[in-house]
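Researcher: Next entry in the queue.
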Amino acid sequence: MAIAQDSCEVSLLKDTMLKSRWVPRPALMRIKTDHIAIGQDTQVTYTSDDASEEPFKSIIPLAKMVNKVNGMINQLVIIMPASLTGNFDGLTETVTVAVDGCEQTCCCNLEIRGLRSIPSIE
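Model: Structure for this entry, 122 residues:
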């Protein structure tokens, strides 16, 4: 019995991650899927809301471990620093997470922490 694509669900177990202003950070994205067949070849894409303005991707995927039984995708990623992604003055950034085979997406908020930018002297 085939399940309709619009009934699938994608969610993050932790929807807020920390982003540094200066240093790349490793992180584990834990993605829960329901009503969708997943495998090691299932693609996960990360798209920033500011994709047209930023020079680099905010999240770079590295390794992925898929558990087909419970529908979990655990993906090791690098969260790029704000100094490279162009979102240096903002405090948060929203990244949309999409899984192949499901039209529904979920969002991850990247909170920028760390040393503040140096104020300009005018």
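Model: Strands lie at 9-12, 16-20, 25-34, 44-48, 59-67, 72-79, 92-99, 105-113.
Researcher: Noted, moving on.
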